[in-house]
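seq:
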Amino acid sequence: RSSGINAEYGEIVLQSLKSGKAVFCEKPIGETVEDTKLCYDTSSSTGNILFCAFQRRWDPTFADIQARVRKGDAGHIQIIKSISRDSPLPSIEYLKISGGIFHDCMVHDIDMQTWVLGELPNQVHTMANAQIPEIAAIDDFDNVVTTLRYPSGTLGIINVNRFATYGYDQRLEVFGTKAMFEADNSRPNTCLTSGEQHLSRVPIHHSFPSRYETAYAAEMESFARIVRKVEPLGITYKVSSAVSKIADAAEKSAREGIPVNLAWSAEDLPSGYTA
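struct:
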């Protein structure tokens, strides 16, 4: 199915669960926390697996950074920064049903940052605008910068843009007291051309299908192992709902021009996370 959020989106998940199927669903499960909870409740009551796939978790470089951060190889994380710039520019027809840039795009960065850190933020502050007139006309944004304050003192920065003319830009930097880890843009091949007056590489990937080809295959293999009950389900309702809650807060901050505080109870925390 499409990764867009529309009226049929959650209904397909619900009908599939009720018909006895295990469900593989690319992010997010629902447009709201309530929609998400209904889907997971149905998964629980029917005994059928609901697998929410944030595919960046299966990217080899991002996964390596996450494992090394959790081991403490970088020391205390001072700043975590992610950049996500889309390519190509989606159609206005899609953007109208996408759920907006926060729930369609930024949720990937929110999940990645919180997964890498094992921590949920207690404050977000967003500045955003729309420089593409057609996007402004549907009351959405195409340039977003969100800062996140984590209880441990870590500062997060998320930069999301709807269109980059040079390709699908996906980067991560984690700066700690012992080391800095960086995930740069991947390319279709690693050829470097050296000329008399220039150096050049092949462009970065044009869009997400080629950029995350390996990750998509790996997450599907993970889904199969979970269905066979040889691997635990890692992205649970608590993960999905936390990501949606943070995205809601980031959008609220953008629209109201204020920082938004977040509170988490012990029951809210996914396994392995703090707040």
